[in-house]
Each structure stands twice: as C-alpha cells, then as structure tokens.
Prior knowledge:
The structure is a single chain. By secondary structure, this protein is α/β, with parallel strands linked by helices. The chain has a domain at 12-51 and 89-173: Rossmann fold (3-Layer(aba) Sandwich). Helix 1 crosses helix 4 (163-173). The chain is 21% helix and 21% strand. The strands form two sheets. It has a six-stranded parallel β-sheet, with helices on one face. It has four helices and eight strands; from the N terminus they run E-H-E-H-E-E-H-E-E-E-E-H.
Amino acid sequence: MTDTPITSPLPLIGFAAYSGTGKTTLLTRLLPVLAARGIRAAVIKHAHHRFEVDHAGKDSYELRKAGAAQMLIGSRHRWALMTETPYQEEPDLNYLIAQLDPALADLIIVEGLKREAFPKIELHRPSTGQPLMFPDNRNIVAVATDEALARETRLPLLDINDVNAIADFVIQFCQLQHKPSLAL
C-alpha cells in the first residue's frame, strides 16, 4: 500500500477482489444503472500486465510501434491517447486520476488497486476459497457477497447480484445526486 494520500477532484470508490471474483462483470452491470440515474462514471482499471488497446495492422498501432512516444487517435465519437512509458514504475492512483477530465464525470470508479488507500467495496465469493480482505484493509467500506460471510462485520453487507442495491450504496456513500438520465 502506498503512503501517498489519494486526492481526487471527484468522489472516488473502488471495487476490490481477488481475480476471478467478477469485478468486471459487476461493473458492466453497474455502469448502465448509474448512467440511467444520471451519474457519469469514469473508470480506472489497473492491469498487472502489459496490454494493447490497438492491434497490429492498425495505423495507430504501427505509428506507436515505430517510435511515437504518444499516439492520439480521434474521431467524432471518441478519442484515445496512448503514451509509452517503458522505463517508468507502476503509475500510482493519483497520477491516473490526474489523466481524467473531471468535467466529463461525476464519479471515479477504480477496479483493482486493492492495496491503495481509498474507499472500496470488497467483492467476495466464499466459493472461490479466497480470504476476506476487510479484516486487514481499513479502506473497505462495504462487502458485496453471494453467501454468508465466515466472519462477522459491522460493515454494510450487499448482495453481489443486486446491482441496484450496489448502485444505491455507491450513490449514498459518494453523496451523489440523482440527475435526469443522460443519453450516451
């Protein structure tokens, strides 16, 4: 865990779990519910490995591989900036947050970075055999699970399969206001 305090221009909440628990699956269900309630969410997903957002044969890929330190591709529908950082350490959450445009979102959701010090919901499925994180992580603010926990807690317990209840918790915890639905 880093000792650097996390600073964010927007409310921030994370979803932390061991691999295979269903973080991405839950978020793909949660994001449309938040959007229907007028909440624009920016998402930061941590990757433990190298990743490619474009592929060989695409112009942007070829230009980046040819030596572009940054490659920005844009259209009327979206734009993406890829920055090569081959000699840098893992970016911390403050750096990643600073790359977002706070004018385009109401909330930042982080998938992963379970050791960083910011509020997060633990996703726990006892059937995976993984231990609970909340006993050793004071940044856990709720636990979403699909079974009874083997350990008692005073933290709010959420049904991992009830995306509306999880959305309600996120909105309340982050003190967000429902807005008219936004067309995406």
